[in-house]
Amino acid sequence: MKRTALLLVAVAAVAGLVAFTAPAPGPADQQAAPVFGIKIYPRYRDWRLVSVAHEEGNLNDIRAILGNDIAIKAYRAGKLPFPDGTVIARLAWSYVPSEENNKAFGRNQSFVPGPRPDWYLQFMVKDSKKYAATGGWGFAQFDKDGKPAGEAQHKTCFPCHEPAKASDFVFTRYAP
Amino acid sequence: MKRTALLLVAVAAVAGLVAFTAPAPGPADQQAAPVFGIKIYPRYRDWRLVSVAHEEGNLNDIRAILGNDIAIKAYRAGKLPFPDGTVIARLAWSYVPSEENNKAFGRNQSFVPGPRPDWYLQFMVKDSKKYAATGGWGFAQFDKDGKPAGEAQHKTCFPCHEPAKASDFVFTRYAP
Q1: Which residue of B has its CA nearest to A170?
Q2: Which of B20, B61, B112 should be substituted to probe chain A, the one whose Cβ sees the most A Cβ atoms within 10 Å?
């Protein structure tokens, strides 16, 4: 009995640790995305801000682009190409008006993040050897529940990023 | 001579440190904003993301809301009111179309940060004693060069935030 109780305490402690260090989504047994084999980085929501954007049209989302320490350092130094170990995360939320903000402003002008869309989370991971065939970058997309997109979708990532070759295939600039 | 050289090395070292720890704006001798006496927090650009937003109309900006560690912890715990020591930073950039992104998407849909507007940087600082008369919050606004807005403008902060009393006078919700 005593042993079981201790085990339960240990499990609870580990569960608490996971809950603290890994904001949803991203359980430890998380599925890797196809093609590039990338999993959700557990601490991505703690990364620093690169920039923000709004996409109209079919996407109609508002997004934040975050970077791990290597990414932020490279962005601020303004040096290209990004070094191996760079990881850039793109978080997107549906684009919704804020009734509360609009009341305070006295007019309809304020748009804020709503629920997560199916393209909630993307990563670009720099590994110039592993991903040599795609400009040194691996790509991954996960939905609102942390489920990776399919193989066909992942094959569209690099062709879409190719026009940004001059900035090492990265569209997002650092917002100072 | 030797003493002068050493002094110069020391000054250069400190200047280097400031440049590294305090991304622009915010020199060490930065002017405090009126009314609440708040200065720019040197490391605000390293803080973690709370949310993003787009304001149409006269503002026409795209913004990021960042929080210091106390703010992020409180937001994630979902507990109100925010504890003393909470600091929330609001960064705004002019809202501009991205030609490069639009080319990649094949349509005009992408909006990104442009130059800093005059209302580039704001802080909300929780100190329930010092700022008791304004809901426990001090407010500050700085322009694109780190210059504080005037006294009259700072007197408009709290009245505008009063409708958000139910969320401790804070409009921005955490974007999960």
Answers
A1: B101
A2: B112
pLDDT by position in tens, chain B (length 176)? 344 444 444 444 444 333 344 445 545 578 999 999 999 999 999 999 999 999 998 899 999 999 999 999 999 999 899 999 999 999 999 999 998 888 887 888 899 999 999 999 999 999 999 999 999 999 999 999 999 999 999 999 999 999 999 999 999 999 99
Chain centroid to CA A63: how far? 10
Beta bridge partners of A62: A54, A93
Residue pair B54/B95 in contact (Cβ under 8 Å)? The answer is yes
Q: Which tokens is A175 given?
A: 């917002």
Test the B interface: residue of A43, A48, A49 with most B CBs within 10 Å: A49
Smallest Cα–Cα separation from B56: which of A88, A53, A108, A83? A108
| CA–CA dist A135, A106 (Å, integer) | 48
ipTM over 0.90: no
